[in-house]
Write a structure and sequence with these properties.
This protein has 6 helices and 6 strands. The protein has 183 residues and is of the alpha/beta class.
Amino acid sequence: MPDYRADCKFKRAAHDSGARKPKSIRLVVIHSAESTSAAGVASFFAGSAQASTQLAADDKECWRMVPDLVIPWGAPGANSDGLHIEICGYAKWDTGQWRGHEPMLRRSAFKVAKWCWLYDIPVRWLSDRQLANGTARGLTQHRQVSKVFKKSDHTDPGPNFPNAVFLEWVKEYLAKIEAERER
């Protein structure tokens, strides 16, 4: 099995909203990149794109575009308090297509688990009410952020993203991270 603990490659995104404190982070926001290449996403964000996220992950690698303590331009309404990951798939994919990219999903789940550990974010999907209240901590998706805050029209990662499996993998990796830290 691949080692998902490997550091991400780095290409700085052109746009962000500046620094933030660790205690302000309460969300992990899942996106579909609408691409199959993390390197391509990093190059896109480094260019003229009016967007950015912390990470992009594909079947083979991970790229970082902005540090955790920098506010990305990922999903209006969840930028100042969210960590964002572009999972290199398409919102139009069916569940089978998503599941056909297990290395990418597992790499992403590991990175999300590490964030959950670092920033004390519970491994759970938030309800619309929890997302909107500004204090609940957990995972969300760009499409939910669009629905709740009405500041964008994005629908990623789409209705067929394997939410339950992804959440189980995040929990599995978080348990491994915690066990390693206890040694």
